Amino acid sequence: MNRAPLGRTGLEVSRLGFGAAPLGRLIGPARQRGIDAVHTAIELGITFFDVSPFYGQTIAETVLGQALRGVERSTYVLATKVGRYGPADFDFSAVRVTRSVHESLARLGAGHLDLVQCHDIEFGDLDQVIGETLPALRALQETGLVRAVGITGFPLPALAYVAERAPVDTIISYCQYTLQNRRLAAWRERFERLGTAVLNAAPLALGALTQQGAPPWHPAPQEVLQRCAEAAAVCRERGADLARVALQYAVSTGDFPVTIVGAADPDEVRRDVRWLTEPLDESLVQEVEACLEPVRDRGWVNGRPENQHPGERS
Description:
This is Aldo/keto reductase. GO terms for molecular function: L-galactose dehydrogenase activity. One of its GO terms (cellular component) is cytosol. The structure is a single chain. This protein is an alpha/beta fold. The chain has a single domain (3-206, 248-279), classed as NADP-dependent oxidoreductase domain (TIM Barrel), CATH 3.20.20. 39% of the residues lie in helices and 17% in strands. It contains 10 helices and 12 strands. The strands form 3 sheets. Strands 3-4-5-8-9-10-11-12 form an 8-stranded parallel barrel, surrounded by 4 helices. The model has no long low-confidence stretch (mean pLDDT 98).
């Protein structure tokens, strides 16, 4: 597995990252499959693991911590988040995020966290994130409990608003660099000029760019989901898998140090790693792009209305 430096953090990460959100859905005996998925990822060279207390209301952190028990700490990069704890439970106060870091350390069985990120900042007060949340995380960084500090979210203007006012080491952007939506490409250099590493998450667009199609809760407009379904039909006719094309495409540019994909099963991990060793079918990419062209770069509103274009505030 190829690796790349994570911006200026001094950390090195595998090009494919393990998104631990699906571990939050594992209950009872199914948890062992999740643990096996983590072990398989490590065996195949994946070194970056991204989780949050929000995923499964701490279940994902607990399962990941169990899986990493006994694994040499220096061999992987561990990232978690603060600020979001439920579908509508957000708290970016200094007191809560400080407590959250200590809670995550305990669940993950870790002595330190390589990266702590403010989770889905568009649902909070961006000025609080700048003036209170990030300083609290920097204070933890001074103690050695945290190595790097970042932010995550969907609206790119919200991420830029914060990053341009308070230095952050990393940004995780999701669903913004895929076969259907490439808006992140126009923002990447802007972030990197700030010294911020940009991590690309959800290259399968939360399931929309798969043969199975989007889950019922998917926030994208119906026209976008319909076009993605048509792209899946094109792949089916060619004996191909839309998820494979989407993952290969997202990683192929090399523009991002790591691309994060969710997994909760060892077979999924093996499949994703194998796909990255196989050539990208450029002609199929062109056919899929033609299907998706009418909805190119279409997204959705996520978070508070005032956080969609915060730089335009009066």
